[in-house]
Amino acid sequence: MAANNHVKITALLPLPVDVDFDLIRFEKNLLNIGFFSSHDPRTKNQNRSSRRMEQTVNQDGKRIRVSVEFQSSEVLGLPSTADRDKFLAFMKIVNEERAREGFIGNKIRFRGSRLLKELGISRSGRNYDDIYEWGRRLAQTTITSEKVIYLPSRKRYSDRTVHVFRSFQRVGESNNDGSDRVDLFEIELEDWLLENLNHGYVVPEDFNAYKLLSRPTAKGIFGNLHLWFHASQGKSVEKDYVELCNYLNVTPYQHLSKIKSTMGASLDELTKIKYLSSWQVQPMATKRGYKIVMLPGEVLLRVIQHSQKKQITDKAPTSYGLNQIQQKAFDVLVDHGVLPQKARMLVMQYDPELILDQVEVCLSQLFDPTNGRQKIANPPGFIVYQIENGLPVPTTFITERKRKEFEAQKKQKQQADEIEWTLRTKYGEWKDELLNAEVAARYPSEQLPNVLEGIIKNRIRKDPKFKASTWTRSALEQAALALLRKELLEELALPEFEDWKAERPQAELFH
After folding, report:
1. Cross-sheet strand order for the sheet of 237-240
2. Which of these, 194, 342, 380, 450, could form a disulfide with 103 (CB 3.0-4.6 Å)?
3. Which residues span the domain enclosing 345?
4. In this structure, what is the dihedral angle of CA atoms 260, 262, 267, 271, given to the nearest 10 degrees?
5. Has residue 352 got a pLDDT over 70?
6. Rounded to 5 degrees, what are φ and ψ at 283?
7. Does residue 6 fall inside a structural domain?
8. Spatial contact of 279 and 293, defined as CB atoms under 8 Å apart
9. Which of 70, 69, 87, 88 is nearest to 22 (CA)?
């Protein structure tokens, strides 16, 4: 299909949704790094066991050059489009478990017949064997990169070699009357993939539209169209032709006619299912070579619009009618990968304050403190298990709630101590005022020195320590005055502090 000469801008406007979508949640990293390439695994002159790809990406607002390397065995080869087909069908099964349980758990079992049914292919022995090879391939293939695999729950990039499947095995098979074959497979996802799927680091892809495609390159481009046109808000998207070929792991060509007859055929297929409305191959302005200019089709725009609405409606109703503490527990559960519907059920059925404590305990156990590696393969499932089984919070574990209670108690005690100190100061000032008035009334200023002198002489005569002291005259007079005030205080029989405080109104105490 020839492209239009003039590329117009298509705004991402509301469109009527009259298509039956089957949205599959595809993990973003696998899409971004081109894990499933569009090469033909039957090509003999192509390296089957390793592949290295470099691309320019945006990270933290900067365009940087990154590389990723894939390694597999020579026998199994690297993942291709056929493996992507099966992976999408497998993710549909996984998504059903997520909708049913509220999270994705490990390990995942499924019948081979179910996977073949989703793919629309026959239940022949060869197709069952293909499933076995597919699982082994994804378990053996390694991804080595620096700052390419993103972990949203930790807000950082992984710098280690990872797999997609931790393990894959065929756990049972039977033959009924020699004609009906039943194979059961079991997959354990790698921690990073399970974590990202549960945290919603995904791109919704319409499986119904995908199954209409036949060309590997069209299938390789398909998933990226959701990302590209969502980011461009429906405006035209341009891609360097050679870089796109490297991403897809297909051979780039120099001549325009060859480009149109190869990649152009795949773009035509995407146009046929209305994921593109038009496309062009144009010369690059800044360097030699060509670029692919694409405009979105109406079905793709509907899918993007529908997936955005679905994300909103999935979250909005589930938190309606919750009180403040239930809402807090709900938000924490959803933030840690529990499906909103499941989170709502948990906060309605169990104590939300205990849920918050249990989540904290779970989070404290996720990683090994010695090496920082994740110990729990399925954090959302671990959290839900703790809640549904009522596992107690260790008495020695200081949760945020306990910490706040301690801080509130400490602050309350501080305030009480300050009030006590203030009142005792006022009590002392009140007694001093009464004593001063009593001293002044009994002993006028002209008589007081003689009274003090008499006290000093009497103490020298009766108290050897007082007599032996080397105090100055002023110190002796101060001591005599203190003794005089002590006697008067005993005579006055003033109320004790607690009685004094009880007799006075609050307003007077803090005046």
Report:
1. 237-240, 290-296, 276-283
2. 380
3. 323-393
4. 90
5. yes
6. -65, 145
7. no
8. yes
9. 88
Query: Are residues 423 and 452 located together in one domain of the fold?
Result: yes
pLDDT in tens, 241-295: 999 999 999 999 999 999 999 999 999 999 999 999 999 999 998 889 999 999 9
Q: How confident is the model at residue 18 (pLDDT cuts 50, 70, 90)?
A: very low
Q: In 335-356, which positions are buried (b, 16+ CB within 10 angstroms) versus exposed (e)? A: ebbbbbebbbebbeeeebebbb
Place of tokens 């002198």: 453
Model pLDDT, residue 509: 59
Closest CA to 158 of 25, 29, 338, 27: 29
Rounded Cα distance between 184 and 174, Å, is 9
| Strand (E) or helix (H) holding 134 | helix 125-140
DSSP string, 39-61: --TT-TTS-SSEEEEEEEEEETT
Predicted confidence (pLDDT) per residue in 438-464, tens digit: 888 888 888 888 888 888 888 888 887
- Residue 315: inside a domain, yes or no? no
For residues 409 and 376, membership in a common domain is answered with: no
Provide the CA 15 distance to its chain's centre, in angstroms: 32
Sheet containing strand 62-71, edge to edge, reads 50-59, 62-71, 142-145
Reading the block at residue 128, the tokens are: 């069952």
Asked whether residue 4 is assigned to any structural domain, the reply reads: no
Q: Which of 308, 338, 355 is the last residue of a domain?
A: 308
> Tokens in use for 485?
């005030």
What are 309's two structure tokens? 């609405």
Q: Are residues 235 and 336 in the same domain?
A: no
Q: Is residue 375 part of a domain?
A: yes
**Is the preceding peptide bond at 107 cis, omega within 30 degrees of 0?**
yes
CA distances, 380 to each of 29, 71, 338, 362 (Å): 20, 30, 6, 9
Residues 376 and 428 in one domain: no
Q: What is the 3-state secondary structure (H, E, C) of 182-244?
A: EEEEEEEECHHHHHHHHCCCEEEEEHHHHCCCCCHHHHHHHHHHHHHHHHHCCCCEEEEHHHH
Token digits for 495? 């109320």
The answer to whether 113 and 131 have CB atoms below 8 angstroms apart is no
**Can you give the pLDDT at residue 401?**
78
Do 146 and 237 lie in one domain? The reply is yes
Query: Which of the listed residues 263, 281, 308 is the one where a domain comes to its end?
Result: 308
Q: How far apart are CA 427 and CA 501, in angstroms?
A: 8
Residue 228: name the closest of 265, 285, 275 by CA: 275
pLDDT, residue 4, reads 43
- Tell me how far CA of residue 300 lies from CA of 112, 118, 209, 267, 276, in angstroms: 30, 21, 9, 14, 7
Q: Is 113 buried (19+), middle (13-18) or exposed (0-12) by CB count in 10 A?
A: middle
Contact, 380 vs 102, CB < 8 A? Answer: yes
Residue 242 has a pLDDT of 94
Q: How many domains does the chain have?
A: 3
- Residue 142's H or E segment, with its range, is strand 142-145
| DSSP states along 107-133 | -EEEEHHHHHHHHT----HHHHHHHHH
